Amino acid sequence: MFSKYKYHLLLHFIIFLWGFTGILGKLIDLEALYIVWYRVGIASFVIFLYLIFKKASLLINRAQLLKVTLVGFVVAAHWVTFYTSIQLSTASLGILCLSTTTLHVAWLEPIIMKKKFSWIEFLLGLVVVGGIYFVSGDFSPDEYWALLAGGISAFLAALFAVSNARLVEEMPSTHISMYELAMGFLGLTAFLSITHKLDASMFVMTMSDVYWLLFLAIVCTSFAFLVTIDIVKRLGAFTVSLSINLEPVYTIVLAIFILNEHEQLGANFYSGSLLIILVVIANGVIKSQQKKRALRSLR
Q: In terms of C-beta density within 10 A (0-12 exposed, 13-18 middle, 19 or more buried), how is residue 15 classed?
């Protein structure tokens, strides 16, 4: 019985790890920029070692390098805004904003992938905006900034997800990730240098911070990504993408038990969160039905 559901259980373990990344934004006592700098630097190096071990060719052409560089900058900016949102407010708010990523994809895909615009997804998006408005009813000024940073993070996540959907037609997904993370690391290094933040202070941290950074970069990023590639092959892309919608649930539950965020967030937040999560799941179910009808029409 275990072997039958092995990959489903593994998938939810990976989603649990991704849900934990928001908690780490609170547990690691570093600026968001530094957290992401360490994350992309270590993760890209680990995937590089994996590709060397697999004796895979690392060569890509100049056009591909330009594409992964641009997307790598977007990935880095996405994580910086995500952790900024969490540090300004709570892990629950940061992940709630991020859960709207799939709804940004709904309007970005017609532009980038030339797909047909979906009015159903657009209307679901409006419901999500209503849910966020309900959640933010009694926010402080810092929490409004957190909401803005989280909203930008969700948009950037959708942008790199749609961009990668095109890139994966040209390159193996392992190569895409390694190069994007590496370019994100170089981009952040340049930004930190320009803003005079690349100094000795970024290397001053507790052993707890060191352990959590290694866990974030190696386990939650490199390991999770490489395992997900195999899971997608076994279970299919749709099952994986639909299950990932549960990530905010894991984060909010973890935030309650680890960070005691239930003491900071009221009933309005959880009511609005439930509405948003239900809409995101409904979006996945609707896509499932549309996919089944499309397959039937081809028979």
A: buried
